[in-house]
Amino acid sequence: MCAIEIANVAYGATQCICRGQLPALLLASLAREAERRASELNAQELANTAWAFAKVGQQDEQLFKAVPESELAIIGGLY
After folding, report:
1. Is there a contact between 45 and 2 (Cβ–Cβ < 8 Å)?
2. What pLDDT, in 10s, does the model give residues 18-61?
3. What's the predicted TM-score (pTM) here?
4. N or C: which end of the chain has fewer CB atoms below 10 A?
5. Residues 6 or more apart whose Cβ sits within 8 Å of residue 58
6. Which residues lie below 8 Å from residue 49, measured CB to CB, with a gap of 6+?
7. Nearest to 42 by CA among 1, 76, 75, 77
């Protein structure tokens, strides 16, 4: 799964989870994949992935510890 696919699946999953159709475990699996590919995520993909987690109230410290500080600075500048 490439970086953009992770972000897209995370977004789609939130739409289903919000309707009670998929378990939150799907996002946990996506988090592990995103963690492995954190250096490949661009600012938009990272923002979309973070939004998906926030939308369903799922925190994943392990994933966001894997995100390079430079990327976090970019996201911070988006708001």
Report:
1. no
2. 555 566 677 788 888 888 887 787 878 877 887 877 877 777 88
3. 0.61
4. C
5. 24, 27, 28
6. 6, 7, 10, 30, 34, 41
7. 75
Element holding 50 (H helix, E strand): helix 43-55
Sign of the alpha-carbon torsion through 27, 59, 12, 1? negative
Rounded Cα distance, 22 and 68, in Å: 29
**For 16-50, b where at least 16 C-beta lie within 10 A, e where not — what string?**
ebeeeebeeebbeebbebbbebbeebeeebbbbbb
| Residue entry with tokens 């897209």 | 8
Rounded-to-integer distance, Cα 66 and Cα 63, Å: 5
Chain-centroid distance, C-alpha 63: 8
Place of tokens 């939130």: 14
